[in-house]
Amino acid sequence: MSLQFPGVHSLNPLNSGPSRVRRNQVRAALLLAFAALAVLLVLFAGERPASASTEDKLNETQGKIDEQNQKKGVLTDEIAGLSARIDDYESQVSALRAEERDAELRLAAKQAELDQAQAEVDKAYKQLKILGARLKRSLGVLKERLVAIYKAGDTDMSDLILTTKSYGDLIESSSYIEQIQNRNESIVTRVRDLRDQQEAIVIRLKKAKDTIESARDEIAAEEQNLATARQAVQDQQAELAAVRADRQSKVDIIDSKVDHLEEIEADLQQKISEQIAAASGISVLPAGPMTSPSAAGLIWPVSGTLTSGFGARSSPGGVGSTYHEGIDISVPEGTPIRAAASGTVIMASYNGGYGNYTCIDHGSGLSTCYAHQSSFAVTSGQSVSQGNVIGYSGNTGASTGPHLHFEVRINGAAQDPMGYL
């Protein structure tokens, strides 16, 4: 994507987000400025420049920031690796839970099947006991009758012959006794057969129940193994989470140190800027307080009075009109200008009526521009964070007095900055 600005052709912005690490270009630009200041002071003073100690402190501070950021980079990479492993364990836990749920369903179904089989076995046992009791009673009755017949012997037969009135009665009586005996034996035999059949049923049902119970126990063991495996994975996951929390705590400590060092760095840069400006005859003012980001994520670049709004306005002398593509904020010359948002400097040079003109690409088609600066604090291609000083207000180009001309552009088209601040 190319952003088009007045007097600027084919600017190719570099996509970049907020960064805590100061880029080499910043240091190169500062070192060049320091060298120029040193030469200037040496020529006029003939002695070691007063800014040297400040420069040394700045280099030392920036070295400490780099060292802390390197440590943070190592910890961040380790945290990313731990997070990936934790996520992998989480996937394993989810898979094991799914298998556990499946095992629980199969176990419940098998338990229901086992309960049904046990009920059938109990019913068969009950029936077998009834048949056993009947057989016992039948055998008892048969035994009593056989004993009675045995004890009666021939006497009974003699009595039977003497008491019968005819041969026909004798035959009928003896046949009746025989039928009773045969019937008793038949009942005993039938009851015994039923008992044997029921016993076979009980054996078959018990074997079936034992098979179901064995399957049930296997599923239960499988479920327990899954639960044990899941717990082991969760324990490993918890250990990694504790390590990650420890690393994150160290990162937070480093961030706190870097914040403190960057405050020192900003103070040293301000002092050096003041020394450079003093050597070149420009007065540099202290940077104003940072405002809170708006809903659009931008902060005010300077704190001053709005003297001209966005859009059409009358030309000087009341003849015709012009279109103002930004807003003008009145501030004294040398006021530090802050980056409205983090991004990449895509232009930092003199540009006709804009004078010293800086533009920053913030990504997603959004860019901001700052005109009429007295001097620059950044170079093209440099990454900046929101609130970094990028230059100093001035009266360069087509300007009627010290102020900052501030623009907001979407895909190169000027927008009303008040809708973004």
Provide an overview of this structure.
The longest helix has 114 residues, at 167-280. Residues 1-51 have low confidence and may be disordered. Strand 1 (3-5) and strand 2 (8-11) form a beta hairpin. Helix 1 (24-45) packs parallel to helix 3 (167-280). Helices cover 59% and strands 17% of the residues. The chain has 2 domains: 3-17 and 285-419, Distorted Sandwich (Glucose Permease (Domain IIA)), CATH 2.70.70; 50-281, Helix Hairpins. Strands 3, 6, 7, 8, 9, 10, 11, 12, 13 and 14 form a 10-stranded antiparallel sheet that branches. A two-stranded antiparallel sheet has the order 1-2. With 421 residues, it is α+β, with helices and mostly antiparallel strands. It has helices at residues 24-45, 52-163, 167-280, and strands at residues 3-5, 8-11, 305-308, 311-314, 321-324, 327-330, 336-338, 343-350, 356-363, 366-376, 383-384, 389-393, 404-410, 413-415.
Q: What features would you highlight for this structure?
A:
421 residues; alpha+beta; Glucose Permease (Domain IIA); Helix Hairpins; 10-stranded antiparallel β-sheet; two-stranded antiparallel ribbon; disordered N terminus
Q: What is shown here, in short?
A:
This protein has 421 residues and is an alpha+beta fold. It contains three helices and 14 strands. It is 59% helix and 17% strand.
